[in-house]
Specification:
It is globular and about 50 Å long. Strands 1, 3, 4, 6, 9, 10, 11 and 13 form an 8-stranded antiparallel beta sheet that branches. It has a 5-stranded antiparallel beta sheet with strand order 2-5-12-7-8, covered by helices on one side. Helices cover 20% and strands 28% of the residues. β9 (209-216) and β10 form a beta hairpin. It is α+β, with helices and mostly antiparallel strands and 281 residues long. The chain has helices spanning 2-29, 46-50, 138-145, 150-155, 237-244; strands at 54-55, 65-67, 78-81, 84-87, 107-113, 116-124, 129-136, 167-172, 209-216, 219-224, 227-233, 260-264, 271-280.
Length: 281
């Protein structure tokens, strides 16, 4: 019995040790869960701080942001909800006494950026469309995008516009929005210019995606959930051809390289942003 008991105990310890090793090996080889943060949302790791990253959104306030064409944030359209920036769907925006919804528009950083790397997390609701724009000139946006109204025509002026013109990282429900049928309009695209790689890994609607833009000199990259899906060079024949075939072809100065604002797009749909961080390159 004694020998048998010792044998059983040793056997038990051998099984426990084997299980521990197997668990450790599984932890090392388990694939990354795309879209999940390694730290809590809206925080930086020590390594990120050392590398020069800083938060553009702390999860609590919209300090450092304002509406394009506004002095403040159009809060009827943009809210902080559970540590995220939520774009309120246009149909749920409060209305003024005459029945019109309160004015909205894109949300932009007060600061401008030249060479930079941007990282953020996002999720969309079914059928939603939005994006993050960069290389944005507020003046160009308002001058080129202003909507002519009867009052503006009568006054000889252009009504203020609150939609940014700039390079756009497309955020989309590819499966349920019509833009998903167009390669250069799908999630991760350089909107209307460069289609994303067909091998991209887009998380399902309602789950968080992690995106990154690298913009240095004339070189640009779009990343989605750890994979580079777009790469471009301004001033090349390829980009000149793409611009000539795009909706931007008639806008003077659109592709001019500048220190520009970073912009969260108001496309009228409910979308969420968090963990927005940037570092200057």
């Amino acid at each position: 019995m004694t020998l048998f008991g010792v044998s059983m105990i040793n056997h038990r310890w051998w099984l426990l040790a084997l299980g521990a090793c197997t668990s450790a090996l599984g932890a090392q080889t388990r694939p990354t869960t795309f879209g999940a943060t390694e730290t809590r949302p809206n925080q930086l790791t020590d390594a990120e701080r050392v590398a020069g990253w800083r938060l553009l959104f702390d999860g609590r306030t919209l300090a450092g942001w304002r509406g394009l064409g506004y002095d403040t944030v159009p809060t009827a359209h943009w809210k902080i909800v559970d540590g995220t920036i939520k774009k309120i769907a246009s149909g749920k925006v409060p209305r003024v006494p005459d029945g019109r919804p309160l004015n909205g528009g894109d949300l932009m950083t007060v600061e401008t950026f030249g060479d930079f790397e941007l990282s953020w997390e996002w999720k969309v609701t079914p059928g939603a469309n939005s994006g993050v724009k960069y290389n944005v000139s507020e003046e160009l946006s308002q001058a080129q995008g202003g909507a002519m109204t009867p009052a503006a025509v009568a006054q000889g002026s252009i009504a203020p516009n609150h939609s940014a013109l700039g390079f756009e990282y497309q955020m989309l429900d590819d499966d349920h929005h019509p833009d998903g049928q167009l390669p250069t309009h799908r999630a991760g695209a350089l909107y209307d210019l460069v289609a994303p790689s067909g091998a991209k890994h887009l998380r399902p609607v309602g789950e968080w995606n992690q995106s990154r833009v690298v913009f240095r000199g004339n070189h640009g990259e779009h990343w989605l959930n750890g994979e580079k899906i777009v790469e471009f060079e301004l001033g090349t024949a390829r980009m000149d051809s793409a611009l000539a075939a795009s909706k931007y072809h008639s806008i003077p100065g659109f592709a001019e390289r500048r220190k520009g604002h970073i912009v969260l797009q108001d496309h009228g749909d409910e979308v969420y942003f968090r963990s927005i961080k940037v570092r200057v390159l």
